[in-house]
Amino acid sequence: MFSIRNILVPNNSLWNVLRWASKKTSGSTRTAKKSGIKKHRGWKRQDGEWVESGTLLVTQLSLRFHPGLNVGMGRNGTLYAKIPGTVIVSCEKTDPNWEHTWIQKNYSDREHTQFYKKYYNVVPKPQPQNFKLIDQV
């Protein structure tokens, strides 16, 4: 005999057949504009600022700024200080290392020509000279 009481009993095999809606239905959504997160590239330290070693000086996509004295260049074009000191930005005639992949990518049309670029330099603090020269006896 089949009754409503048999359906509501958890041990009944019909109890496992009942399903509830797992998700609500929704309308279509428009795809958001994928401009991405801004990378905040550019100058990180200005001319005349004091920096410690390893400090980021510039992040860049194309080669706008070149590494100068005591400045290293990462694989992604980032310039960083190698030693603690004062940042100096200068505009100099450039003769880049044509073996570097970044130089080949950005200046392939200007090979072996002279042009001016901005260089980042880090000048160390002058060391105190606390010694006196004594005549030899």
What would your notes on this structure say?
GO terms for molecular function: structural constituent of ribosome. This is Large ribosomal subunit protein bL27m. There is one protein chain. The chain has two helices and eight strands. By secondary structure, the protein is mainly beta. It has helices at residues 4-8, 101-106, and strands at residues 42-43, 50-51, 56-59, 65-67, 71-73, 79-81, 85-94, 115-123. It is elongated. The model has no long low-confidence stretch (mean pLDDT 80). A hairpin with a 5-residue loop joins strand 5 and strand 6 (79-81). The protein has a domain at 42-123: RNA polymerase II/Efflux pump adaptor protein, barrel-sandwich hybrid domain (OB fold (Dihydrolipoamide Acetyltransferase, E2P), Beta Barrel).
Output the keywords.
137 residues, mainly beta, OB fold (Dihydrolipoamide Acetyltransferase, E2P), 4-stranded antiparallel β-sheet, 4-stranded mixed β-sheet, 2 helices, 8% helix, elongated, Large ribosomal subunit protein bL27m, Ribosomal_bL27, ribosomal protein, ribonucleoprotein, structural constituent of ribosome
